[in-house]
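Contributing new records

If you add data, match the layout below exactly. Sequence lines come first and carry their own label; structure lines follow with theirs. Keep one chain per record. Anything else will be rejected by the validation script.
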Amino acid sequence: MVVEDEPLIAEDIAGYLVESGFEVAAIANNAQEALDQLERTNPDALLLDINLGEGMDGIELAGIIRKKLNIPFVFLTSHADKTTLDRAKLTIPAGYLLKPFDGNDLMTSLEIAIFTHLKNEEKNADELDLETLNSSLPVPLSQREFDMLMLLQTGQTNKEMANSLFISVNTVKTHLLHLFEKLDVSNRTQALFRIRELVG
């Protein structure tokens, strides 16, 4: 979900997300609209501008989200002053991104935020087993694909996975493509959410 008081910027951010394989649950241009949307949708994360025009600002909104909902949020702001930063830190954001930023900055911050959030609430990886997981999938994972999934959950890069499994980086990429296809996802973060759905 994108919460940004400038409609054109909000649309640009939504475009970045869609291009990267994410679904935008909603766009809100002020805090009240965001609260209304949160009642109707169930976003996995929020990109939250601090300056939201009239009414409560993004930091106040984040405080409400922190108390009532278990959703990670990343602040998007042009404000880097100490007062704003100190207020923002109290809400325990998953990230803080200064404008102007590009699509790569945005996606990196969002992926780290979601990954960290999932790791904090995820069942222990040892509780996942191949047989249980495959019973929930139309096309079963191979043992090697399951191994890749376990390493994905630890946040390893492709190179680190290759070293862990004594295979080449290209082989890792091939296994990941097969894994994503079987989970019906397009990236690592979506794969983690999919596993949470299947075993949760």
